[in-house]
Amino acid sequence: MFRKILIANRGEIAVRILRTCKELGIETVAVYSQADETALHVKWADETVCIGPAKASESYLNMKNILAAATTLGCDAIHPGFGFLSENATFARLVETCGIKFIGPSGDVIDRMGNKSAARELMLQSGVPVVPGSNGSVRTLEEAQTVAEEIGYPVLIKASAGGGGRGMRKAFSPEELENAYLSARSEAKSCFGDDDVYVEKLIENPKHIEFQIMADRFGNVVHLGERDCSIQRRNQKMIEEAPSAVLTPELREKMGKDAVRAAKAAGYENAGTIEFVLDSKQHQYYFIEMNTRIQVEHPVTEMITGIDLIKEQITVAEGRPLSFHQEDVKFWGHALECRINAENPQENFRPCPGVVKGLHMPGGFGVRVDTALYQGYPIPSCYDSMIAKVIVHGATREETIARMRRALEEMIVQGIDTNMDLHYMILHHKDFLSGNFDTSFMEKNLEKLVK
Ligand code: ADP
Ligand code: ADP
Ligand code: MG
Question: Is 293 noted as a catalytic residue in this protein?
């Protein structure tokens, strides 16, 4: 059993992890930057350590300082959350070198799956359907052109190290390819310090369907069903739901089996997500990537399965077997999550950091809010704009949508701009209500919705 865990993250996910640690009787260490001295995760942890200045590269990405804190305070394990160091193989290895458990897969597994073009190769070999594309990365424009001609336009140029919807460009014709190739490369370089890119066929107007995986070190791999994350803006998720309104039980079983196969091929341990795009007209799905960490939208899976995923992560990291088998996983009802960001959709989603002057969180039956906000909290400008996740659970999709509308009506965040009204509008759109939507929904409807 772990006695003390360091949480190498901030914001709502740090608070989310703290909550489970408290319930398990595990002591917690919060790390924070100088911009986060007043943050909630710092107030709630048993011990706290400042690890550097506001800039993430000098604090939340500062491996040396985080490891120094963990070893000095005698931590048994480090939970990386998502973003920051969560998918950094070097960090995972360094943590283990210090005799501390990294709550996630090993550095080797992160390497294997974290590089998206390498992961594609492994999936191809294991018989998991993969989007047609290049074998590994492409090193020149000519190579990209050859692949694009082979698989046919439109194509996507994607950063091998990509994440958060960055480093990705579409090309609908040979004329557009050069621009797409060069700008994907340069964004990849500036965001990830790695300009390696690969080519994939652009599946037009697909659904984003992903499967939650849990695996232990004894080779047990279980999936916890899917999440439909098709409501995205610029390849970034806004609303997630489980189950998907379009999967038949047969397709769910088939995709679930492939997700388990994918995790097994990777020699996976701990929580992970296998992402697919689903061409709903063709009933064909394709692997796009694996996220080797807990996901932002993990709560929707928790709501319909009743399983605390952070607790399971800790259990398997302690070297114990998963607390359930595939046949024990039962799904109940429907869950939705809205990502609330401090941004102004009317002004091209300009980030709106600032002081939270007034705050009222929704409640009642089936409503959960994961947030690190409190009244008077100054939202810093140097990090991600996501400030809260509103998650609701209901018996049916209809009831769940009604509940989310009601929850958003109750929620008050004063002093800053948010995307709450935009969420509210989406929850009234006929295509969202009918389930007849795909990843093009926001692009198609944004202008009207924002007005
Ligand atoms: P999820 O698939 O869990 O929804 P996202 O892709 O939205 O994850 O990313 C979650 C968080 O992690 C976001 O804040 C995003 O900016 C950040 N993130 C994801 N991947 C990377 C990466 N490779 N490098 C830096 N930040 C990342
Ligand atoms: P990230 O690591 O940034 O999350 P992904 O590979 O998961 O990158 O892609 C982000 C989003 O872009 C997906 O959720 C999907 O909506 C879209 N996308 C990615 N690959 C394709 C593809 N080949 N065809 C169509 N859409 C895609
Ligand atoms: Mg993704």
Answer: yes
Cβ of 163 below 6 Å from ligand 1: yes
389 CB less than 6 Å from ligand 1?
no
Q: How far is CA 144 from CA 152, 192, 194, 366, in A?
A: 12, 20, 17, 49
CA 108 to ligand 3 centroid distance, Å: 20
Mean pLDDT of 300-328: 98
C-alpha of residue 165 to centroid of ligand 3, in Å: 7
Q: What is the DSSP letter of 130?
A: B
Q: Is the pLDDT of residue 321 over 90?
A: yes
| Ligand of minimum distance to the alpha carbon of 116 | 2
How many Cβ atoms from other residues are within 10 Å of residue 153's Cβ?
A: 15
The residues that bridge with 370 in the sheet, in sequence order, are 389
Q: Considering the chain, what is the average pLDDT of its residues?
A: 97
Cβ count near 54 (within 10 Å): 15
**Residue 83 alpha carbon, nearest atom of ligand 1:** 12
Query: Cβ(384) to ligand 1 under 6 A?
Result: yes
Measured CA to CA, the distance from residue 285 to residue 129 in angstroms comes to: 7
Which residue's CA is the closest to the ligand 1 atom numbered 6? 164
283 confidence band (pLDDT: 50, 70, 90)? confident
* Residue 41 CB less than 6 A away from ligand 2: no
Determine the pLDDT at residue 367: 98
Are 174 and 165 contacting, i.e. CB atoms less than 8 angstroms apart? Answer: no
Taking only the tens place, the pLDDT of each residue in 1-23 is: 999 999 999 999 999 999 999 99
The Cα 13–Cα 110 span in angstroms is 20
Give the residue, by CA position, lying nearest to ligand 1 atom 17: 83
Residue 309 has a pLDDT of: 98
pLDDT reading at 281 higher than 90: no
d(CA 249, CA 255): 10
Q: Supply the DSSP symbol for 390.
A: E
Residue-level pLDDT at 282? 79
The answer to whether 36 and 105 have CB atoms below 8 angstroms apart is: no
* Residue 36 Cβ < 6 Å to ligand 2: no
